[in-house]
Amino acid sequence: MERQEDSLSARPALETEGLRFLHVTVGSLLASYGWYIVFSCILLYVVFQKLSARLRALRQRQLDRAAASVEPDVVVKRQEALAAARLKMQEELNAQVEKHKEKLKQLEEEKRRQKIEMWDSMQEGKSYKGNAKKPQEEDSAGPSTSSVVVKRKSDRKPLRGGGYNPLSGEGGGTCSWRPGRRGPSSGG
Prior knowledge:
This protein has about 190 residues and is mainly α. It contains three helices and no strands.
């Protein structure tokens, strides 16, 4: 029985010695590298949170893609809507093209009519420029009975003389710039 008591008393001494060794080892490790361990744990936690959020988003995208490719009704509806939008845009473009063609046709007809009028006036010996302007003036002056007198360009006073050129440096302005003399300065 004594042996049993000795072995019981010897065990706690071994356990306490192991705990002391563990306490000293872990204590010295934490004393030396404690802050590094704490910051490393915080960094690992933050990185893990970021990666887990990204992985969740990636999984969700993959599930959405799989669901969209599995449902043929959604794909067909999307393609029909896209085709309808394209058709509508094409019809609008065709309408614009028709309007433009009609406008060009009218312009061509107007030019052709003016050329015919010019040719006729040339055959009669009249000036084609003066003749082309006369019908417009007669149309505007004939039906209106207003007393407004239209000033002609010749009645207006010109702003500057006919020979004025702003790049020449002439023109009688008070602001004339002349470059300085060339050569060495005449000092004493």
